[in-house]
């Protein structure tokens, strides 16, 4: 027995030592990767900037050195920031080492607003007189929309281009939920508020179908108009080609109809790039991608760091949505960031960059308040990306000016609450019953194990109506409209940016670049620097925190044993920061 305990103890100590050694080894690897990611990059003469855009495009590059790692047991997120892409295109305009841009996308993982902003940046780049050369083997509709701006669009002889029009498809869960015994009880204001329709219907409501037809029609018309201008093919012809679907018709068909300029293999494309860059036939083309070029310092005026700042504050993802993690908007954190920018005397104007479908009504109100306070002391420009709808529009409403991409989806001024009833699932499907004792008449209000009473439904409807009234009031105040006028374009209806501008929800078209330019103009500053907020957390520090947090939880779990689930539940309640008390019944504006 003594030998058994000795060997067991030795094994435990060995495992602990091995774990410690592995931790130190991991830290060493991470430190090396971080230092490698921080090494300066130089650009060779006669280089070409390569835009493959084969990673997911997010609003803001996170500078995480793990993103591009790909080896057994570990795979990076494979993301590229729109801010990095736009900055690289702008920098390449005046970089004497960059001869032009080589576009080689396929499937672009980004929304239409994002693609439009990259496309507009490329149009601006052409003013430098440098070339844009595009080559495709299989171009999605978004990819073709982007490359259509190039001086030359070259297609592989066996390549294809997708041109078929836009389609909006919805899935409905009503019948599936009924089969498992779940009833989704919905209270809403807004006949166009389609977010809850999958729980209630088997197909789109007439109102939802109407708004969907309207906004995808507007997006498609905008895409075709842009392609028609750069390719010299009229809109009617493009629609005719889309009706016939170009995808499987062969590269010769694309050439005949003016969608591409020529058909070439990759070796011929490389020869073209050598000629365009003045590279000798025996040498390789000097190429640099966005990830590397983003690390090349931009040229300066030699006058040192400008004191005046334009703060670009990013609001990306769902607002206080459970499970969003770092990919969503934390209303407390974002409102604190806006507040700090308001109090910073060096910040002369704020650009609030929004790419959000909405979320918590309370969280939206918290952010709105800070935007409102900021707009009272300095210019605030709201810049809408792919989508700024519902709560995303709510937080934009207090800005002095709202700019949107022409392909932005916005509006959706409405509010709803969802309370599931899982009584049938528990009783009939699982055999679980429940009994209740109340001290007061409605102590078990909005129980998940029974249908809502008429009292509860009326109470919740009044709560929703009050929330809708606050929402429309905020929009009316910010947009100089009457509440009645807001309600007329509200009711949860979604709008494409072009229509949104006609009805007064948007002031003008433009992306993040135009928003910053407008902020500079309104602030009346000449020398300035752009400060992106919130500050990006150091990935190494975050990794260490995660490691230490994991170790801490392991010891707590060992100490508490079977009481650990109770501790875990208390932590979850604590982390809500009182959200249950403020917005207890899943009131959403998305």
UniProtKB/TrEMBL annotation:
UniProt domain Peptidase S49: residue ranges: 125-277, 375-525
Record's keyword terms, sorted: Hydrolase, Membrane, Protease, Serine protease, Transmembrane, Transmembrane helix
Position of the signal peptide: none
GO terms for biological process, alphabetical: signal peptide processing
Transmembrane segments: 7-34
Cellular compartments annotated: Membrane
GO cellular component: membrane
Family matches, as Pfam families: Peptidase_S49
InterPro entries reported for this sequence: ClpP/crotonase-like_dom_sf, Pept_S49_pIV, Pept_S49_SppA, Peptidase_S49, S49_SppA_67K_type_N, S49_SppA_C
GO molecular function (one): serine-type peptidase activity
Active site: 193 (proton donor/acceptor), 390 (nucleophile)
Entry keyword Hydrolase: yes
Family: Belongs to the peptidase S49 family.
NCBIfam families, per database record: SppA_67K, SppA_dom
Protein name (record): Protease-4
